[in-house]
Design a protein that fits this description.
Layout (H helix, E strand, L loop, with lengths): L7 E4 L3 E5 L9 E5 L11 H22 L14
Antiparallel strand pairs: 1-2, 2-3
């Protein structure tokens, strides 16, 4: 187990779903590719195909557990 696995909620071959680090905002999740990439355009075909289902999984989990009125998905582009 890695030290940052305390934030890990779910992992599949291509993505990790983690709770935000350093923010105490319930339900703030990040869907992170396992392979480091800088932009969506850098994802390969398999990663792109898995992105939608992974976002849907994270969204359903939030809806089932927290029952929010809305769930927002956003893409943040930051350089490593």
């Amino acid at each position: 187990m890695r030290p940052d696995d305390d934030y890990l909620l779910h992992a599949i071959a291509l993505y990790r779903i983690e709770h935000a680090r350093g923010f105490r905002i319930a339900g703030l999740l990040f869907v992170l590719p396992v392979r480091p990439v800088r932009a969506l355009g850098d994802l390969d075909d398999a990663e792109l195909a898995a992105l939608g289902p992974t976002l849907a999984l994270a969204t359903r989990a939030l809806e089932d557990v927290m029952r929010p009125l809305n769930v927002y998905c956003a893409k943040f582009g930051e350089s490593p």
